[in-house]
Write a structure and sequence with these properties.
The protein has 146 residues and is mainly alpha-helical. It has one domain (2-133). The protein contains four helices and no strands. The longest helix has 49 residues, at 2-50. The chain is rod-shaped, with a radius of gyration of 29 Å. 7% of the residues are buried.
């Protein structure tokens, strides 16, 4: 009788894992991409707000490096003063936030595909383990030990 219940339970568990695992896997993988995107953007904004001097120095250093490519080294001090006069503070990090968004949108389809594959596998394994952990009680008329 136990073999018959295993045979009957397997297709039901397989259908349940596909029916529940595919949409669940897609949803949770998409949610993970969203949480990562939110964390990265939030950390960029917090860093921009909390450490304005360090962020400003990095920004002016990058602008100075770009401008010094075409100028002689002797003009480094003058060029640095020009950069600091031109940029009083670092602009809002639009480019970083935009690039984080593009990366999240590129990763999203691949995450959804992995959710399509990994979701049913997870649901099937957890259902199979739960079914084996909690075996069906014996029938009332059986003489099995309790």
């Amino acid at each position: 009788m136990a073999g018959l219940t295993k045979i009957a339970t397997f297709p039901i568990l397989l259908l349940w894992s596909v029916a529940y695992g595919v949409p669940g896997g897609i949803f949770f993988k998409a949610w993970a991409v969203y949480e990562r995107w939110l964390y990265q953007n939030r950390s960029q904004i917090i860093q921009w707000k909390r450490y304005p001097l360090r962020s400003y120095r990095k920004f002016t250093s990058a602008v100075l490096t770009h401008r010094m490519r075409s100028r002689p080294v002797e003009l480094a001090g003058f060029t640095e003063s020009q950069v600091q006069a031109e940029y009083k503070r670092e602009p809002f990090p639009f480019l970083i936030l935009f690039s984080n968004t593009l990366v999240a949108l590129v990763i999203l389809p691949f995450a959804a595909l992995s959710g399509i594959v990994l979701g049913p596998i997870h649901v099937f394994r957890s259902g199979w383990e739960n079914w084996h952990r909690n075996p069906q009680p014996p029938a009332r008329g059986s003489t099995a030990k309790r």
